[in-house]
Amino acid sequence: MFFFLKSLSRSVHDDIEEHHHQEQDQTSKIVTDGTCTSLTVWRKSLLVNCNGFTVINSNGDLVYRVDNYIVRPHELVLMDASGKSILTMHRKKKLGLGDSWLVYEGEVGKCCSTTRISKKPIWSVKKHSNILQASSYTQRSCKVVDESRTTVAEIKRKEAIVRGVSFGVEVFVLVVHGGFDPGFAMALVLLLDQMFS
């Protein structure tokens, strides 16, 4: 399964938010400095009676979480360990052409199908019809590539240390290659889950 990413707009204001970024909890920030980052993704919310995802790093620390009370929501919010919104994914329906998803930085607020969002999206993700059969999100075996077809992230089944023990498809590994944003890679996992589950 290969996805191509289209950047719509993105502006970074380093000077304005420098002080704010210094105060952020460093355990919720993952920086890829050329090495791969391995995250364990559990397709379960930590909250009772809630759908979602829990993501931990190789040290066992909570990194990302998603908590939803609706089975197939039109909006997903990816949060860091402290509950701060990182990215918001909003489903945009097109008649007969399938869904596309718009990704916004931070939280865009409570959204319903009749409300217009004034904030500009930073990415747009579409489900392509020419999907390779060798890859499958539902089997937790797929890669995300950039425009030059270089692998930037991989979704793999979680392997147990003890042979014969299986985690199934509810627990899997997200490997993020150096230079690619792990938060956006996790957002892609959320979108894949909405598109193919």
Task: Tell me which CATH architecture applies here.
Answer: Beta Barrel
CATH superfamily: LURP1-related
Query: How many strand units?
Result: 11
Content-based structural category? mainly beta
Strand order of the largest sheet: 1-8-7-6-5-4-3-2-11-10-9
Q: So how many helices?
A: 2
Q: Give the SSE order as H and E letters.
A: EHEEEEEEEEEEH
| Low-confidence residue ranges | 1-29, 129-134
**What profile does the largest beta sheet have?**
11 strands, antiparallel
- The level of helicity is 10-25%
Strand content: 25-35%
Q: Tell me the CATH topology.
A: Porin
CA distance, first residue to last residue:
14 Å
Task: Tally the structural domains.
Answer: 1
General form: globular
* CATH level-1 class: Mainly Beta
Mean pLDDT: 74
What does this protein structure show overall?
- There is one protein chain.
- This protein has one domain: Porin.
- It is mainly β.
- It has 2 helices and 11 strands.
- It has an 11-stranded antiparallel beta sheet, with helices on one face.
Question: What's the SSE blueprint?
Answer:
Layout: E1 6-7, H1 14-23, E2 37-42, E3 51-56, E4 62-68, E5 75-80, E6 85-94, E7 98-105, E8 123-126, E9 142-145, E10 151-157, E11 171-176, H2 182-196
Antiparallel strand pairs: 1-8, 2-3, 2-11, 3-4, 4-5, 5-6, 6-7, 7-8, 9-10, 10-11
